[in-house]
Amino acid sequence: MAFTDKDPHSLGELAKVVILGARIARREARGKGTARLEQRVDQIREQALAREALKKK
What we know:
With 57 residues, this protein is an all-alpha fold. It is built from two helices and no strands. The longest helix is centred in the C-terminal third of the chain and has 22 residues.
């Protein structure tokens, strides 16, 4: 279930994306790679969009 009408993410997905964003920022500050974490954020977004697209059909 979407958290808002304008956003396809559920509350749990929003929490995961925020936590991953904090981890990405921390790793960037330390000069480490973030590709794996960014890929996970993209997967969460794609899953949310796909789920909401199915609900609209």
